[in-house]
User: Fold this.
Amino acid sequence: MDENVSYNFGLIDSLVRREIHATTARLNASLTDLRSRIAPLRASWTRETATAFGIEQDRWDRAAAGLNDILTRLGHAVGDGADEVAATDRREARRWG
Assistant:
């Protein structure tokens, strides 16, 4: 059984950052699309309806900002993890000379 483990630290970081960026872009594009679909309807809304929607839209915006923040922190955590594994790998390689 081969017990060698290898990592491509740059690839790990690159793929994760790319996927996080793509996920964030899809989320934001969906919200933009939703706003554009709703915009024509707003003219016919009563004041109460517009107010209620505004409250919900604020909730969506805060939730989207929260998700974007989580995704960003996740990307940093994966990058930091890859850095730590790379540092450990270098440290252990030096021990073996």
Summary: The chain has a mean pLDDT of 87. Residues 9 and 82 are 6 Å apart (CA to CA).
